[in-house]
Amino acid sequence: MVLLPGHNLMNELKQIIMIYKKDTAIEFEKQGVKMRVYNTKEQCPEATIVYQETQKGHHEEFFHSKSNFIFYIIEGAGTWFIEDKPFKAEAGDVVIIPPNNRFYYKGTLKQICITSPSWEPEYEHHVRNIEF
User: Fold this and answer.
1) pLDDT at 2
2) Which domain holds residue 59?
């Protein structure tokens, strides 16, 4: 990084540090998945971080027309259905779904979901509900 005259490295770093605590996260359940949303687009336009737990999977097939969905699986295993093709994934794996790809998943999972850029509801499109 090159700093111009009058810039202070510590001031530059302070502007990009963000820490979000569990007790300030928004918790809810959606389509069979318990979610803890740590930040919003207004807080960080580049990415939204969500902790997720499910016993069966995500009960909705959908796609997002703007954001990548990046899942890091902490615990468990499941099958991801991306554009109707099944992919097995387990703890330690990463699943990346680019915009405009339909998907849902089945399994018992604890995972981190990162959307980049930050998730915006108007770009999420319902395809169909999934029966388990």
Assistant:
1) 43
2) 22-129
Q: How many separate domains does the chain show?
A: 1
What pLDDT does 18 receive?
A: 79
Instruction: Please report whether residue 11 resides in a domain.
Output: no
d(CA 116, CA 39): 12
Contacts of 28 (CB under 8 A, 6+ apart): 34, 35, 37
Summarize the confidence of residues 73-97 as an average pLDDT.
98
Residue 117 contacts by C-beta under 8 Å, 6 or more apart in sequence? 41, 45, 46, 47, 66, 67
Radius of gyration of the chain (CA): 17
**What are the CA-CA distances from residue 88 to residues 16, 19, 93, 95, 126 (Å)?**
36, 32, 10, 10, 23
> Is residue 12 over pLDDT 60?
no
Residue 9 is assigned to a structural domain of this protein: no
Average pLDDT, the chain: 91
What would the pLDDT profile of 102-114 be if each residue is shown by its tens digit? 999 999 999 999 9
The CATH number of whichever domain residue 80 belongs to comes to 2.60.120.10
Cβ atoms of 60 and 129 within 8 Å: the answer is yes
